[in-house]
Amino acid sequence: MTSTNMNNPTDQAHLDRLKRIKYRANHRGTQEMDIILGGFVDQEIRNFDAEMLDRLENLMNETDADLYQWIIGQPGTTQCQDVELLDMIIAYQRDKVRSGD
Description:
The chain is mainly alpha-helical. It has five helices and no strands. The protein is globular.
């Protein structure tokens, strides 16, 4: 019997990590962030390497209030530490709104 990728503990750990991230992104606590961040993660996570996943998890540690203010362009009490990733989320949301999805 040959082994498959699913039998590799490292691959399983990666898949488990993706599931946890997706769950966290879609169950933030506010409906707005569930939609924005959850949609972004559902769409983009398959393209992320381990470093990007680390960055995403760090960003997801921010409060919904701060994330939402940054995304809609309102000045907040804190500054985003990962502007590049935040810009990716903003671009995703802007494209989604423009396409009417």
